[in-house]
Design brief:
By secondary structure, the protein is mainly alpha-helical. The chain has two domains: about 120 residues, no CATH class; about 190 residues, no CATH class. The chain has 16 helices and six strands. It is globular. The two termini are about 25 Å apart.
């Protein structure tokens, strides 16, 4: 990823839409980054990192702090809809795709686009809801919806755990798909809505299906959720979230300029790759490979879900949360 805001933004959007990461040339690195990469190739530094990696292998346990926080957030957000409906408080009405909270309209960006394309006119309440949601995710990070709100996320995470165990036993094999497929599906769903007047994506979206099930008890569509999870367990790891769901694409575009981000500091990185191994979108962490960082401190791109899983497994604190202009993701002292 190239240095500077403009370079990072262009490269980040390219990754979001499916381009493969490219190792920066020395000319595309800052002087400080080139010096750090040269230092990391010295025998003393190689030995230090190797010792640290072996120590990490001897004690493979890592924190679950951010996973617990994420799952709690998902439980609370979705639980509010359920509690409000079944107690008839009417404080929170609707589902995650479109709702009214204390009188304020909230509407998912992608769902609203599909609906307006299908009906071929702009709905005022949807515009209000889109604006509200847009402001929230501009502040807190676009794809944070995927890991902190989406009810399908923990189910897919559990399916991923099962998939990895089956892969380790060599009972199944992972089948990665082309990441550009998500961009294609965004266009396909939008075109189908416009041509047919039917919002196909809303019918098959796990977000809407699970949100309506938890609140209203409509269980028939759970058959589709079971099919998706089976595919993710036995065939392709995180297939829906990585390769098909256009929601991640819309929120990723929103997250291009968000102040809340994860920042990588190459100074403290062991480059052993555990962060990429657990990441839902490992292409955003390409700079954690040795010699791939164009800056000493690099904000992760807009496709990052801010899930914190990389922070849980990072042994040195090279990956930290940061709020642009307010905090600085300082790494621990040597």
């Amino acid at each position: 990823m190239r240095p500077g805001f403009v370079g990072r933004t262009i490269d980040g959007l390219g990754l979001l839409f499916g381009r493969e990461p490219v190792k920066p040339t020395p000319e595309e690195m800052t002087e400080e980054a080139r010096a750090m990469h040269a230092f990391k190739k010295t025998p003393e530094e190689r030995k230090r990192r190797k010792t640290g990696i072996f120590a990490e292998f001897d004690d493979p346990k890592h924190s679950q702090k951010w996973r617990i926080r994420r799952w709690l957030s998902i439980f609370v957000v979705n639980g509010i809809f359920v509690a409000s409906y079944w107690t008839d408080l009417q404080l929170v009405e609707g589902a995650l795709t479109a709702s009214r909270v204390l009188g304020f309209h909230f509407a998912d960006l992608n769902s609203s686009l599909q609906l307006m394309l299908a009906h071929k006119h702009v709905v005022l309440n949807l515009l209000i809801g889109i604006t509200t949601v847009l402001l929230i995710y501009l502040a807190f990070g676009g794809r944070s919806f995927c890991s902190w709100v989406c009810p399908y996320h923990p189910l897919s995470e559990i399916a991923e755990m099962a998939h990895r165990k089956l892969v380790e036993k060599r009972w199944v094999k992972d089948h990665p798909l082309d990441r550009r497929l998500r961009t294609v599906m965004f266009g396909v769903f939008a075109l189908l809505a416009f041509v047919s007047g039917f919002t196909l994506f809303e019918t098959i979206s796990p977000v809407g299906i699970l949100s309506r099930f938890f609140t209203y008890g409509t269980a028939f569509a759970l058959i589709w959720i079971g099919v998706l999870l089976a595919i993710e367990v036995f065939w392709s790891r995180r297939m829906w979230c990585r390769y098909l769901c256009p929601i991640g694409l819309t929120y990723g575009m929103v997250g291009t300029v968000t102040p809340v981000r994860v920042v990588h500091d190459v100074t403290h990185c062991f480059h052993e790759g555990k962060c990429r191994d657990v990441c839902l979108v490992p292409h955003v962490l390409d700079m954690t490979k040795l010699g791939y960082s164009s800056e000493v401190r690099t904000p992760i791109g807009p496709d990052c879900t801010r899930c914190g899983m990389c922070l849980d497994v990072c042994p040195t604190g090279a990956l930290r949360f940061d709020i642009k202009g307010i905090t600085r993701a300082e790494t621990p002292a040597e």
